[in-house]
């Protein structure tokens, strides 16, 4: 026999060592609980700090006296959760971002592969992409307003543009970084270019592509919220800005928290799908988050 | 020089084996290089290479590192177009890779996201073999290389030796007419390597495919080969390229002589 299978690396990173009290390490379950405890405590400490500053109306050059306390925010949040408007806003923003981001993922991955695999496509598309890429998507608002019949389409367009570039660039780099041996293996097994595309390129670039999707989702949120603030009639961004204009400061904070949670959830979803899709990577298992 | 009769492994050279009918279309491929110039970019690694490989034989190419033995193999595979001269496979000029000429790489040739089974099935899938048939033939080969219990494992869960077994199964499952092996056991420890050599002799007994095997290990060459082609070092004028093509005799004493002859030529 050629030997037993090697074990997948299973030791968690040592980030929890410092926090671990003296003495032998606890069980795996105990350590996991401890780490979740630390994560929760980190959030609670930030909230507590906020509460101290706002409740005391602190004016330490930065002025916290006009910002709402935790109690005010919680009360406003509770009230909002019961309104259908809040849920409508939430839904609206989610539809916008998922449409824009979904289109950007498909178009970005396709374009990235195309410019990396075909010299002709690269010559045609790359100058164009490089010229448009430095323009912040939010600077396209005037174009979006002029170009599209409705604000809705304009906002999706801006979200799309924001996410498109990081996805395209990371896909392009991932294709170029692919080891040639996999392609050669498939070709010597009789594979055509199409076989190489489906069996080597697409699975092989996934680790790099998910990096781009993650960044893309981040900038997509920035742009969907900004676009909503400028030209929306619904949506979390619109509602947050609206709250500010009517001097509803707790409402502003509620909007911000909502954006934070939504962004976190969508990033986590991408992270999770990415890890599922790249299980074959040497360090995919056992590496902590 | 002794004539090509039978290698030490007892495999009849240059003909269809008794069991060859098991694999459809199973006659070995003949190769011929005519004044072939091979290399990358502007530098020729090998110039004016003349070499004939007979159908069904095991030709081992021995050479030090940098002698161009992998380059030669890549040209036969169709991965490297010649800069001059001609490379022929079965009498036709090689213009690109083909399922007829399967290749086994030194390491990491498996697709890491595919399980052992799906790696071995790949050539059949490319050829459009129906799913059920695919699974059955792949399983047969997985068992033949001694990995019966590991069909669902990913390459990273296997040792280096096991991964090379998978590569061997994947190369042979499509019943190619030639198998090109690029130092396939070069990264393995001595013990694993010996086991793999036995396995290779074992599975080759059942195929009629021509084998071109590249190595820097003279003993490995003598063990596996019907004939040995010796490549000289590059950069030494008059010593570059194919220095000699030698038949491997059956007797122990004759092989010792041959061993010394090869080492002299290297």
Automatic annotation (TrEMBL), chain A:
It comes from Planobispora rosea. CDD domains: TM_PBP2. Keywords: Cell membrane, Membrane, Transmembrane, Transmembrane helix, Transport. It is a multi-pass membrane protein. Signal peptide: none annotated. GO terms for biological process: transmembrane transport. It comes from the Bacteria. This is Putative nitrate ABC transporter, permease protein. Pfam families: BPD_transp_1. PROSITE patterns: ABC_TM1 (PS50928). Residues 90-274 form the ABC transmembrane type-1 domain. The lineage of its organism: Bacteria, Bacillati, Actinomycetota, Actinomycetes, Streptosporangiales. It is found in: Cell membrane. Belongs to the binding-protein-dependent transport system permease family. Residues 1-25 are annotated as: Disordered. The chain crosses the membrane at residues 94-116, 128-148, 154-175, 196-229, 249-273. GO terms for cellular component: plasma membrane. PANTHER family: ABC TRANSPORTER PERMEASE PROTEIN MJ0413-RELATED, ALKANE SULFONATE ABC TRANSPORTER-RELATED, MEMBRANE SUBUNIT.
From TrEMBL, chain B:
The keyword Transport applies. Coiled coil: none annotated. Residues 31-258 form the ABC transporter domain. Residues 1-21 are annotated as: Disordered. GO terms for molecular function: ATP binding; ATP hydrolysis activity. It comes from the Bacteria. Keywords: ATP-binding, Nucleotide-binding, Transport. Pfam families: ABC_tran (PF00005). PROSITE patterns: ABC_TRANSPORTER_1, ABC_TRANSPORTER_2. InterPro entries: AAA+_ATPase, ABC_transporter-like_ATP-bd, ABC_transporter-like_CS, ABC_transporter_ATP-bind, P-loop_NTPase. The keyword Protein biosynthesis does not apply. This is Putative nitrate ABC transporter, ATP-binding protein. It comes from Planobispora rosea.
